[in-house]
Amino acid sequence: EERVLNERTGRSAEMFKRANRSLSGGVASSYQLRDPWPIYLERGDGPVVWDVDGNQMWDFHNGFGSMVQGHAHPVIGKAIQERYAKGTHFAAPTEDAIAVGEELARRWGLPQWRYTNSGSESTMDAIRIARAFTGRDTVMKIFGSYHGHHDTVMVSIGVEYDKIGEPDDLASLPYGAGIPQATVDMTVAVPFNDVGAMERRLEKLIAQDRKPACVIMEAAMMNLGVVLPEDGYLQAVRDLTAKHGIVLIFDEVKTGLCIAAGGATEKWGVTPDMVTLAKALGAGLPMGAIGGTEEVMSVVKNGSVYQVGTYNGNPLGVAATRASLIEVLTPDAYAHLDALNDRIVGACDMVIQKYGLPGYAVGVGSKGCVTFSPTKITDYASFKANQDAELSDLAWLFNMNRGIFMTPGREEEWTLSVTHSEEAVDAYVEVFDELASDLMS
Ligand code: PMP
């Protein structure tokens, strides 16, 4: 499969050579890397993308889950063009920024909002606000979760199984070089889906006078495929953090706008103190947002925290976002995504049963994946111990060679867009059936 893909992507190989002369490693972001070269894309239209070699693919990557609106959506294009003609950037507020804030407040039930330009900025600012609000430094996160590329959260992600540590005392380890040890030490990780472990770790920290400012987490882990919260888990975390006066941040950079109109907060009916958004929010433009309660966000309003950025609330970004929220991501759109995802998850499960493949399909809203594991993944440790990484890599190559464009990592899920159809998801299932048949015969 590897050889076939390499033969089909000769122009990408040439571009990679050229790119290496001006771009570090030949790409714009390390997450775009892939051996022996990345696939350079040229064009996207609705649910379809074309690479520079002219290979046409159904897009299940969707810009790491950003393009829930589909590529080149005419409504978004019109909003961008109209805004562009009137000027793209003032660093002064525009009406669209208000309209977006009103809609996000309605969807999340959180009254106060600010904008950023990425998921990383959103989580960085949210954590600072939580620290200012509580006057505390320690941050608690879920082991294995990714929350962006700033120092505080580049901790305890992508760790090898033998370095994970004990459930009640998981390691704090930097993700890559250049992160100060003092910052690493301030971030404490606990396992997902285990409120008992969170409670015991909290008690230990409180005894050491290191009570956290916040717990930052995804309501469903979206970087181990898809790991759903077990019944009652989110409410138990909500109760525990409220009891200790710890700010609960749901990082909805991936789940927000993708799994329901009001993200995980609506889906599971648990409202945190703060929410962070990005990715699908901007419909393909770099938009992020932070929402919070009046109480927590008061540290922004009263000027004690500088929540700032030249491009925050950029007119082009908020115009695209407004059009996306009001005209594209409608209740009908979410009903369409739910129905399509049920279809693809159900069909993948049937394939798994038909061939006796060790694995299962899981999905929520526009997100889902086939997890190659004989047992259910509930947290990072069980992912590392059970997920068949080799098979996941093979599935990626197999898909790419048959016109299914997926994220290069083995830890990502598919994202459907409102422009995906039954034809698109059936194409995915057909390729999966072929893979399962090849493997199990
Ligand atoms: N939080 C989560 C949950 C994410 O998945 C990501 C990106 N994968 C981020 C934050 C960071 O977003 P960005 O890449 O826009 O900085």
Automatic annotation (TrEMBL):
Pfam families: Aminotran_3
EC number assigned by the record: 5.4.3.8
Gene3D superfamilies according to UniProt: Aspartate Aminotransferase, domain 1, Type I PLP-dependent aspartate aminotransferase-like (Major domain)
Cofactors named for this entry: pyridoxal 5'-phosphate
SUPFAM superfamilies xref list: PLP-dependent transferases
Keywords linked to the UniProt accession: Aminotransferase, Isomerase, Pyridoxal phosphate, Transferase
Main EC class the enzyme belongs to: isomerase
Annotated family: Belongs to the class-III pyridoxal-phosphate-dependent aminotransferase family.
Record-given protein name: Glutamate-1-semialdehyde aminotransferase
Biological source species: Patulibacter medicamentivorans
